[in-house]
Amino acid sequence: MPSFDIVSETDMQEMSNAVNQVVKEITTRYDFKGSKASIELSDKGITVVGDDINKLNTVTELLRAKLVRRNLEPSCLEYGDPQDASGGTKRQEISIKQGVSTELAKKIVKKIKDEKMKVQASIQGDQVRVTGKKRDDLQAAMALVKGVESDRPLSFTNFRD
Predict the structure, then answer these.
(1) Residues 141/130, Cβ–Cβ less than 8 Å
(2) I want to staple 112 with a disulfide (CB 3.0 to 4.6 A). Which of 17, 38, 86, 121 is the partner?
(3) CB 140 within 8 A of CB 86
(4) Rounded to whole angstroms, how far apart are CA atoms 47 and 17?
């Protein structure tokens, strides 16, 4: 039976490359000379440090630009509130959204069922599996899901015929 999965995955290699490009740009830009601005990627997310809120915002804008250039959706990032850090600097934690949240999965399944399509959608962990008898029905479901408003980028994987 034909099926596909709806997932929200971020390519961590590309994310690492984007962060490294931002680090390189921070070290070479004149307006960051002598500042404590930095960006660091960890397993939990991204930590941005800046001398003040303006430098912090500049670094996050640089990160957004590098993500777009590397074909990553900036909506995969969730920005925390800027906090005071040691030495009079500001710190901001940015988490990377992975997987389809349960609320979004329920929203997708409800949307598919409301359209009375000839497909079945089921939630499986952090992804949604859609199955149907015809390939055309699955493609119609893909088009429908692309129109769903979500807080993270959605992609389709594991298409089986």
Answers:
(1) yes
(2) 121
(3) no
(4) 15
Q: How many CB atoms lie within 10 A of CB 55?
A: 20
- The encoded tokens of residue 67 equal 């993500």
> What one-character-per-residue DSSP string does 53-69 give?
HHHHHHHHHHHHHHHHH
Residue pair 2/160 in contact (Cβ under 8 Å)? The answer is yes
How far is CA 128 from its chain centroid?
17
State pTM to two decimals: 0.79
Q: Which of 90, 94, 74 is nearest to 82 (CA)?
A: 90
**Neighbouring C-beta atoms of residue 125, cutoff 10 Å:** 11
* Tens-digit pLDDT profile for residues 132-149: 888 888 888 888 888 878
Q: 35 near 72, Cβ under 8 Å? A: no
Tell me the two tokens of residue 7. Answer: 């997932």
